[in-house]
Amino acid sequence: MQLDYNPADIEVKISELLVATSDGADPDLPAAVLEVLRLIRTKLSMDVAFVSEITDGRRMFKCVDSAAGFTPRLAAGMSDPVEESWCQRVVEGRLPQVMHDAAPYIASGQAPDPGFPIGTHLSTPVRLSDGSVYGTLCCFSKGVQPKADIDLLRRTANLLAAKLGTPPAAAKA
């Protein structure tokens, strides 16, 4: 039998991980999201990848994968006012989804200063089937990654949104 895709391809792995049913601790996210974030972060040469939820005026980190030794530490469960987040600005279109070099955005005040260097920043909304925004899928590096491509993030956000939009009973059937 000849396959029409490479099973080792990162997008195939991500799709397979997000399609699998979840018994994870966070009922909102499939258990495999951490592994998906690690695959994305590594493939795109980033220091951090995360999924955030935007709700009740807050941006909450739902799942975070960071490179070994990355500081400051970002962790699931941390939150901040949504208006202080880059995520909300991306959702509203005040910041672009792709910033190959975020320094000019910070210097001009378009992006809040996070207190540590951010070179490349990629972010895309996670839109549910009803059009509402769950949050964002983001990754960033301290250094500039001029070839970083957001297409992988967008496709992954769509898969994640489809999984989040599935009623729990249907997801376990």
Describe the structure.
The chain is an alpha+beta fold. The longest helix has 14 residues, at 151-164. The protein has a 6-stranded antiparallel beta sheet, with helices on both faces. The protein has one domain (10-165): Beta-Lactamase (2-Layer Sandwich), CATH 3.30.450.40. The two termini are 29 Å apart. α1 (10-19) packs parallel to α5. The protein has helices at residues 10-19, 33-43, 86-92, 103-107, 151-164, 168-172, and strands spanning 48-55, 58-66, 79-81, 98-99, 121-127, 133-140. The chain is 30% helix and 21% strand.
Which structural class fits the helix and strand makeup?
Answer: alpha+beta
Secondary structure: number of strands: 6
Please mark out the parts with pLDDT under 50 across 5 or more consecutive residues, or reply none.
21-26, 167-173
In angstroms, what separates the terminal alpha carbons? 29 Å
How would you sum up the major sheet?
Answer: 6 strands, antiparallel
Could you spell the SSE succession in H and E letters? HHEEEHEHEEHH
CATH topology: Beta-Lactamase
Structural domains: how many:
1
Can you identify the CATH superfamily?
GAF domain
Structure described in brief:
The protein has 173 residues and is α+β, with helices and mostly antiparallel strands. It has helices at 10-19, 33-43, 86-92, 103-107, 151-164, 168-172; strands spanning 48-55, 58-66, 79-81, 98-99, 121-127, 133-140.
